[in-house]
Design goal:
alpha+beta, Butyryl-CoA Dehydrogenase, subunit A, domain 3, 3 domains, eight-stranded mixed beta sheet, 8 strands
């Protein structure tokens, strides 16, 4: 089954890149997934394959040597990778978002001519690092407070500074759950410009070299799921970076966050892929077609048929919203589009786990064995609803409020 359900409306590039991701997933990523999960080790081997296939530059514009894929194409590819290795897909998203934010999303936003010229020069350097040198960028986001949810300024602070005649910033702060920690060549750090009265508008997105003085990775990594993302804690102590480290001009992240909400919906494709994988495994298992297991068919039992039917219904509901979300992407979407985006994100994250839950129950005791992928899919699927900036709870909170209130509306206090 194709991750898009049907290829009838896909472009030639979308068909080609999804097929490439599927081949890498089947032949390379899936066979390695259990080892990386067991060891909680980063999939460097998978990234070598992504690099060789040119997929590190999937959303780098054509004029910079990348593949020039748009948002829709990327999320289809990400979902297909998630079908074979969730941790690879999720960490890959952190890399690709660096190019999406600095590329197509930045191009859709308002900048002065001077800002646009400066941004063009800066991003050319970073796109070159990816396309020509095969370097990996990450996007550590969470800090343990309200900033990642957009409710407060970033606690990580960038102070304008001069180092040996080079203008730039000195960064101090901490990022938790920093995917690709110890694996990325650059950390795309969101921070607040250090100035009086700084607010969420005074945001800055900086590429910090992993080897820069003052950068350290600390803590253990032994989580429930998504173990191969190796998301340890990133510490930044008096780290100097030049102005060319800016992946977006000062303040542009805030504009992107308020005008281009689809930028936060790139985590969910991984979980679309996991949902598909859980369904695929269940069908193969009940048909007696799972490699390495006895060819015993269990498809003739009505309880199994009902369970698979329920899984398929949930899968197609999830896919429909996933695809609509991919088609809806735009700057300044209307309220209904924003609410549908939140509904899609919530549905994908929650249904992924629910489909995996049904798969475990339906496949029975064998599903608990680590020799089969289903228990890993179940653990990985549970993590999606916890991920900022749009956890399941935050999606529901915003949806409920925005369904009932128009902008600026307030209720009278109830005594």
């Amino acid at each position: 089954m194709h991750i898009a359900g049907s290829i009838a409306t896909l472009t030639a590039q979308q068909c080609e890149l999804v097929a490439l991701a599927a081949a890498l997933g089947r032949e390379k990523f899936a066979p390695r997934a259990a080892l990386h999960d067991r060891e909680a080790s980063f999939p460097f081997d998978n990234y070598a394959d992504l690099r060789e296939a040119g997929l590190l530059g999937i959303c780098v514009p054509l004029e910079h040597g990348g593949l020039g894929a748009d948002f829709t194409t990327y999320v289809l590819v990400a979902a297909e990778i998630g079908r074979h290795c969730g941790a690879t897909a999720l960490s890959y998203n952190m890399h690709v978002c660096s190019t999406l934010w600095a590329g197509a999303i930045a191009d859709a936003l308002d900048m002065t001519p001077a800002q646009r010229a400066d941004h063009a020069a800066n991003r050319a350097l970073h796109f070159g690092n990816i396309v020509q040198r095969g370097q990996i960028y990450s996007q550590p986001f969470s800090e343990g407070g309200a900033a990642a949810a957009g409710k407060a300024p970033w606690g990580t602070v960038a102070s304008p500074a001069d180092s040996h005649g080079v203008d730039g910033y000195i960064i101090n702060g901490k990022k938790i759950f920093a995917s690709l920690s110890g694996a990325a060549d650059f950390y795309g750090v969101l921070c607040t410009v250090d100035k009086p009265g700084a607010s969420t508008r005074d945001s800055l997105y900086l590429a910090v070299p992993a080897g820069a003085h003052g950068v350290s990775v600390v803590g253990d990594w032994d989580p429930l799921g998504m173990r191969g993302t190796v998301s340890r804690t990133l510490l930044l102590k008096d780290v100097f970076v030049p102005h060319s480290a800016r992946l977006m001009p000062e303040g542009l992240y805030w504009q992107a966050a308020t005008r281009f909400p689809h930028m936060f919906a790139t985590l969910s494709p991984t979980y679309m892929g996991i949902a598909q994988a859980a369904y695929d495994f269940t069908v193969s298992y009940l048909r007696g077609e799972v490699p390495g297991t006895p060819p015993v068919k269990r498809r003739m039992y009505p309880t199994k048929q009902v369970a698979v039917a329920e899984m398929r219904v949930k899968l197609e509901q999830t896919r429909a919203l996933f695809l609509q979300n991919a088609r809806d992407v735009m700057v300044d979407p209307d309220k209904d589009t924003r609410m549908r985006l939140l509904a899609a994100h919530y549905t994908i994250m929650e249904n992924s786990n629910d489909i995996a839950r049904l798969a475990v129950r339906t496949c029975g005791g064998q599903s608990m064995l680590k020799s089969l992928p289903l228990e890993r899919l179940y653990r990985d699927s549970r993590c999606g609803s916890l991920m900022l900036p749009w956890t399941a709870e935050l999606c529901i909170d915003r949806l409920g409020r925005e369904c009932l209130y128009e902008a600026g509306e307030r209720d009278e206090a109830i005594e």
